[in-house]
Amino acid sequence: MKIAIIGANGQSGKLILAEALKRGHEVTAIVRRADSTSHTPVLVKDVFELTAEDLSAFDVVVSAIGFWTEETFPLFDKVFRHVSQLLAGTETRFIVVGGAGSLFVDPAHTTQLLETPDFPAAFYPLAKAMTDALVTLRTFSATAWTFFSPAADFDAEGKASGNYQLGGEELILNAAGESYISYADYALALVDEIENGNFIRQRFTAVAEK
To answer: Which of 44, 98, 131, 136 has a CA between 20 and 30 Å from the CA of residue 77?
Structure first.
């Protein structure tokens, strides 16, 4: 498959790129600066300067882009909106590296993780921005989007177990009763979704063992 990864030089983007290349896919890194993206074609362009023509050759576009300050958190919504508009009405899928805060913690789907008393206050602005961006994404019925929420404990340094469990809209736990996944297992699950296409216009999540 032909895959584009926006933000391919970030922590999650690098692992997704490596996993896709390992499986023989054709991967293009879309980055603002051409560094740390060897062994793959690179399109050096700001995400907001991307055009429909830029993305037309790809089967899947992945957004692994991150924003880490309160001033830039609103850009998640703008990125999702912009790329969704570019891909609307096409067969190109749009897969987003999402957040865990929007996962529901009850079967009735009345309470999201970020609304629970123990949710860390320091992470709330980021979680709220990602949650709002998911609401925007859901409005694009003509775009084949997928929002992939990690577990609550999203471990950048964790090892790859090679095994994971999938869920849908609700927070799930592993056999140890933990909401945990490493970036490496997350990348594995994301590339599996690229290949399988099980969650078109849906959000899903995954957990793994430490």
So the answer is: 44
